[in-house]
Design brief:
alpha/beta, 4-stranded antiparallel beta sheet, elongated, binds 5'-O-[(L-methionyl)-sulphamoyl]adenosine
């Protein structure tokens, strides 16, 4: 059994979960479920990012202490993930004692290695993005270049990480590992960024300005820059570092001691690629830890031309969609509609079109198959060879796995839906209702029904990562003991199963009239 460790970004505990957060998290969940189904030992990490100025200010606005706000919001995120069927193994919060200790151990390591120095910082800071921008980046309007929010002029003493020392090594790593950052467009963007001299990274904030952060181990008047704090969560949860051990024995080193580190893939939106593909790997290099195996940046959900964001107020609430159409339909839409890596535009029309696809192709195939087994064979699947659609099934499973393994999830799920489409075509060609009428049609009908049930069994496996509820429900109706794993598909036996017909898997649904 191989092990697989994947992560989502940790979400700011200052805002409500919206469809953008839901997208990253569902993407991770789909990959986690797929890997488990393929037999891997999975660690799926998500959580909340709880320090920094943004949280401090949001709490003050609401008359709460920062930790009170974080407790509230972490609970909110966890509750939303539960309703969306997220199967994370660990929910990390950066205010946890274990994480705080690992951050401090990591900073000490960087300092012991000679990569930390003290200096004065003058520049522009965006609270919205929790990062500094250069004069050039903020442009003549002096706004943060990502969301257009305000920036403040700042001059203060900071500690710096000698990020510039790792520029060559990082460029070489990206060039030698063309698949390290996917998709390619994002890799090119990072290489473009690295084409200019890399500046050192300010890793601290004076406590006089921001008190809500992890104090530096060697200077309690400064707290850790929230992005450095946040990125380290990936190492904390891996168990690679033992902060309680004496400095030389904490687990730094490449290779690390046995643990979940390095991560197999970090997932994130394209807006936070620089922090993950530049800050993070150089910090790891500075602390003598190996780099994550892959960085996957997905696109944005946009409404019209604009990124969905809380500050703009155009966010779509995944829970509202869920109430109308069910969790699995929301998951299906998000995974099927956005080509992994590119932007996609949310529209109710496209949502309905994707829901109709579920209803009319997959739902319909399930319903007609189960009804016919009930009508013609008293609800017991016949023993007849289930060998129809053999080539279509093998091709679909292969295309599905190529798609998901290559992080083109939309292609994988399209291949699964094509198999359902092919099975509906098989019904039209075989005409089981005519086979049932023909005096010598019994063997043909047995084969038709067994083939359809077997194909549905395969589809429960292919659809489970994206539609866990419906797939489990269909497996139950088919009389299977559970959703089969990939290793069980070849030998999947359906003869003799007792099926149950029930209400449609995907009932009629619509948006309320405006
Ligand atoms: N706290 C940082 C991440 C630290 S990770 C060490 C952060 N948090 S966030 O709450 O802003 O959430 C970021 C994630 O949500 C990113 O992956 C981002 O791309 C995603 N999305 C936020 N809005 C989005 C869309 N409109 N569309 C798709 N995803 C977007 O950044």
């Amino acid at each position: 059994m191989s092990s697989f460790y994947l992560t989502t970004p940790i979400y700011y505990a200052s805002g409500e979960p919206h469809i953008g957060h839901a997208y990253t998290t569902i993407l991770a969940d789909v990959l986690a479920r797929y890997r488990r189904r393929a037999g891997d030992d999975v660690l799926f990490l998500t959580g909340t990012d709880e320090h920094g100025q943004k949280i401090q200010e949001a709490a003050a606005e609401q008359g709460l202490s920062p930790l009170e706000l974080c407790d509230l919001m972490a609970g909110r995120f966890e509750a939303v993930w539960e309703t969306l069927g997220i199967s994370h193994d660990r929910f990390i919060r950066t205010t946890e004692a274990e994480h705080v200790a690992v951050v401090r151990a990591m900073l000490e390591r960087l300092r012991d290695n000679g990569f930390i120095y003290e200096s004065e910082y003058t520049g522009w800071y965006s609270v919205g993005q929790e990062r500094y921008f250069t004069e050039k980046e903020i442009g003549p309007e002096r706004v943060d270049p990502i969301a257009g929010g305000p920036v403040e002029r700042i001059r203060e003493k900071n500690y710096f990480f000698r990020m510039s020392a790792f520029q060559e090594r990082l460029i070489r790593h990206i060039e030698e590992n063309p698949e390290w950052i996917v998709p390619r467009s994002r890799r090119n963007e990072v290489l473009g960024f690295l084409g200019r001299p890399l500046e050192d990274l300010s890793i601290s904030r004076p406590r006089s300005r921001i008190h809500w952060g992890i104090p530096l181990p060697w200077d309690g008047d400064h707290v850790t820059y929230v992005w450095v704090d946040a990125l380290i969560n990936y190492v904390t949860a891996s168990g690679a570092i033992d902060p309680a051990a004496p400095p030389g024995e904490r687990g730094f080193g490449d290779p690390p001691r046995p643990s979940r580190w390095p991560a197999d893939v970090h997932l994130m939106g394209k807006d936070i690629i620089t922090t993950h593909a530049v800050y993070w790997p150089t910090l790891l290099m500075g602390a003598d830890l190996p780099l994550p195996r892959r960085i996957l940046a997905h696109g944005w959900w946009v409404v019209g031309e604009t990124k969905m964001s809380k500050s703009i107020g155009n966010v779509v609430d995944p829970l509202a969609l869920r109430e109308l159409f069910g969790t699995d339909a929301v998951r299906w839409y998000l995974m099927r509609e956005m080509p992994t890596g590119q932007d996609a535009s949310y529209t109710p029309e496209r949502f309905l079109a994707r829901y109709d696809e579920l209803r009319n192709i997959f739902g319909n195939l399930a319903h007609r198959t189960l009804s016919m087994v009930k009508r013609y064979r008293a609800a017991t699947v016949p023993e007849g060879p289930a060998d129809g659609l053999a080539r279509e099934t093998a091709d679909a499973v292969a295309a599905y796995r190529r798609g998901i393994d290559g992080y083109r999830l939309h292609e994988g799920f399209a291949a699964a839906m094509d198999l359902a489409r092919a099975a509906n075509g098989f019904v039209e060609v075989q005409e089981p209702w005519a086979q049932a009428r023909r005096p010598d049609g019994a063997a043909d009908l047995d084969r038709t029904l067994a083939t359809l049930v077997r194909t549905l069994g395969v589809l429960t496996c292919l659809f489970e990562p994206v539609m866990p509820e419906k797939s489990r429900e269909l497996a139950r109706r088919l009389g299977l003991a559970g959703v089969p794993r990939f290793g069980e598909l070849e030998s999947l036996e359906v003869g003799g199963l007792e099926v149950a017909v029930d209400a449609p898997l995907f009932p009629p649904a619509d948006f309320p009239a405006a």
